[in-house]
Design brief:
Strand content: under 5%
Helix content: over 70%
Largest sheet: none
Structural class: mainly alpha
Order of helices and strands: HHHHH
Oligomer: single chain
């Protein structure tokens, strides 16, 4: 009896996460994280308050993750056209839109992690020489900062009709 319950639970868990955590079979874990963070930071950049220091930082993030995703694909001889990458990013944005209500806490946390990861890139200045480690431990200050941004950004993005790109 317990094994049946455990199997049903695992099927439910995997099935429930499949839509929002979709990954392409050909993408490595790093590539998937880069592309998801590109999508999430696109939301942040769309929803950013205009003419602020925060907006400037948030505007850099989607392109940064996009560029490193493209570079990772290229380094494995699986280079993709920018339009293909944009299509995949838009698919993730669409999934976020469709599942936000059911996955709000998960998406807020993912936004915090993407923001913290972006800090590792941006702290290198204009000449980024390495991909920082995907964060597992995040300072309280950074967590609070990106939790506030994520909380506002997702809701604002949805209120704007969930645009797929920043047209500012």
């Amino acid at each position: 009896m317990h094994s049946i319950v455990a199997k049903v639970f695992m099927i439910f868990l995997v099935g429930s996460l499949t839509g929002i955590l979709s990954a392409h079979a050909q993408d490595s874990r790093l590539e998937n994280q880069l592309l998801r963070c590109s999508a999430i930071s696109t939301i942040f950049s769309i929803a950013a308050e205009k003419n602020t220091e925060t907006e400037i930082k948030l505007q850099k993030m989607p392109a940064l993750f996009f560029e490193f995703y493209a570079n990772e694909k290229k380094s494995k001889n699986t280079e993709m056209k920018p339009e293909e990458i944009i299509g995949r990013r838009q698919q993730i944005l669409s999934e976020i839109k469709d599942h936000y209500v059911d996955r709000e806490a998960l998406l807020l946390e993912e936004g915090v992690v993407c923001g913290a990861w972006a800090e590792g890139f941006l702290s290198q200045g204009e000449n980024i020489t390495f991909i920082p480690v995907y964060p597992k431990v995040i300072s309280t200050q950074t967590r609070d900062y990106y939790a506030r941004i994520a909380s506002v950004a997702y809701k604002k993005w949805l209120a704007l009709g969930a645009p797929m790109s920043n047209t500012k």
